[in-house]
Specification:
With about 525 residues, the protein is α+β, with helices and mostly antiparallel strands. The chain is built from 17 helices and 22 strands. The protein folds into 2 domains: about 70 residues, Alpha-Beta Plaits; about 325 residues, Beta-lactamase. The protein is elongated. It starts with a helix and ends with a helix.
């Protein structure tokens, strides 16, 4: 009986052991599931590309492209690997300091060859690369970005707007660490991310860049800039600067945007502003005659002569502009009080900031002495003693193109149009007619037979160098234009820095750029 009891107990114990184990396992089930989930899921910090930058027609000017890359310890390793890849007909999208961006994924077979050639183990990863399709043509405007965000140009100015927030995504992985699928909640559709649209027109930017580059080369100049602005909206359709740089090149040498950052004495480009101010303040009548004999004037014991020693004699008020008479403008300028001549320049936006977001916002300088001598007023009247950039000049000339209403230049398509009346229609039309006469029978008469009727003013100013003074045989040669003259649509400013001193007048150096661009714009139906 005792044996039967012992066997029964043993049987009962054997029966209970699996049950007890099952119970224990069931109790630990949640712990196992949690551990399993931890081992099979991972998180990754996704740094998303920046928003795109577009021109006014939706053409991409800056975008991010996802490419397979190989990252090396040094350039020597990279160059050794590059030889292997090119021998194997692998397309290279971009070659930077230590990284190669490839058009297509590299097979393990090719990677093994690369490792053997460079005796190295490059890091293989897919990386977003900021890419600028038009390179140096937009370089000084768009700028570029890096790992720290926008570093130059629009990329830096609008950095906060262009950033797409980084975020963590959760995904499941295989035993070998391969990504299987991720959380749909973390998916970001980059195509739907709103980009930044500029007022620039790629067709005009490209053509203007080429024409400016040619003009600078032909005149053996140091550099230059040019701007095309819509006369009625202020949209900057093209803004080029040369020399430029290619933002895609990691060894780039940064060049400034001369159209915004170069301030210079505009010289004779100010003469129409002086005449318009004198008419506005009733200091002179439109039908007045100005005696410029004998071709020079002495003010504050300083002699000022006409360019080239000319003597225009008795000329009309309009001819002081078209013939660019230094003596005539000087005689008009001394009619202003010290405050009046400066207030007139400020009315046209000189010495005033542009209403545009940029890296630095400079208003230019102007003689600030409490009392101006006659020679000071004359200097201001024909464009010395103050500095301006090309966009400020475009803003000022917009008043003559818009029947007296001045337009603020704008670079960002969504910015509001800002208008301000500063002249009567009659006054503005008088100046516009005088600018047309400059082309028909004045200092820009080489443009009188062009297909598009152009109104404009030439400017040739001696170049002032800080710490040196006015440099011998160094000039800024400019042309401010409005076209078509009969129904103004566009304003164009061309400025060329230090052209050949044997051929440096604005009418010879800068004006032909306007002629070629206006003809191009007519052919492409902009006019």
């Amino acid at each position: 009986m005792s044996k039967l009891r012992l066997l029964f107990i043993i049987f009962l114990v054997l029966l209970l052991i699996p049950g007890i184990r099952y119970y224990q396992l069931n109790q630990e089930r949640d712990l196992f599931l949690e551990a399993s989930e931890i081992r099979s899921t991972a998180t990754k910090l996704n740094i998303h590309p920046r928003k795109k930058i577009f021109d006014r027609n939706g053409i991409e000017l800056a975008t991010d492209i996802l490419r397979p890359t190989l990252l090396f310890k040094n350039e020597k390793e990279k160059e050794q690997a590059l030889t292997v890849l090119l021998d194997d007909s692998q397309d290279i999208f971009l070659n930077t300091k230590r990284r190669l961006y490839l058009e297509n994924k590299v097979s393990q077979k090719i990677l093994t060859k690369v490792q053997a050639a460079c005796s190295c183990s490059p890091i293989r990863e897919d990386t977003f690369k900021r890419y600028y399709p038009f390179g140096s043509i937009f370089g000084t405007v768009i700028g570029f970005s890096g790992t720290d965000g926008g570093l130059e140009g629009v990329e830096k100015v609008m950095d906060d707007l262009l950033i797409i927030d980084s975020k963590r995504s959760i995904y499941n992985k295989s035993l070998r660490g391969e990504k299987l699928y991720g959380s749909l909640d973390s998916y970001l559709n980059l195509e739907d991310s709103e980009g930044l649209s500029l007022t620039l027109d790629t067709n005009l930017q490209f053509k203007l860049f080429e024409e400016l580059k040619t003009a600078i080369s032909d005149s053996k100049a140091k550099g230059g800039s040019a701007v095309i602005m819509n006369a009625s909206t202020g949209d900057v359709l093209a803004m080029v600067s040369y020399p430029s740089f290619n933002p895609n090149n990691p060894q780039r040498v940064i060049e400034r945007n001369r159209a915004i950052e170069d301030f210079y004495e505009p010289g004779s480009l100010i003469k129409p502003i002086t005449v318009a101010g004198a008419i506005r303040l009733n200091l002179i009548e439109k039908n007045s005659m100005i005696d410029t004999n004998p071709g020079f004037i002495t003010l504050s014991d300083i002699k000022r002569s006409e360019a080239g020693g000319k003597n225009f004699g008795n000329i009309s008020l309009s001819e002081t502009i078209s013939k660019s008479s230094q003596v005539g403008i000087a005689k008009i300028s001394i009619k202003f009080s010290s405050d009046q001549i400066r207030e007139n320049l400020r009315l046209f936006g000189f010495g005033e900031y542009l209403n545009m977001s940029w890296l630095s916002n400079n208003s230019g300088i102007m003689i600030d002495a409490a009392k101006l001598y006659d020679i000071d007023k004359a200097s201001l009247g024909y464009g010395y003693g103050l500095t301006s950039n090309s966009l400020q000049l475009a803003r000022a000339y917009s008043a003559f193109a818009n029947e007296g209403v001045m337009i603020e230049p704008k670079l960002y398509l969504d910015d509001q149009v800002i208008r301000k009346r500063i002249l009567t229609k009659s006054n503005a039309d008088f100046i516009l007619d005088s600018l047309r006469m400059t082309v028909l029978d004045g200092t820009a008469s080489n443009l009188k037979n062009e297909e598009v009727q152009i109104a404009g003013k030439t400017g040739t100013s001696e170049k002032y160098i800080e710490g040196v003074g006015y440099a011998s045989e160094k000039y800024i040669s400019s042309f401010a234009s409005i076209f078509p003259a009969q129904t103004p649509k566009y304003i164009m400013i061309v400025s060329i820095d230090e052209p050949d001193p044997n051929k440096y007048f604005g009418g010879d150096v800068s004006a032909p750029v306007v002629a070629r661009i206006s003809k191009y714009m007519k052919r492409l139906k902009y006019l």
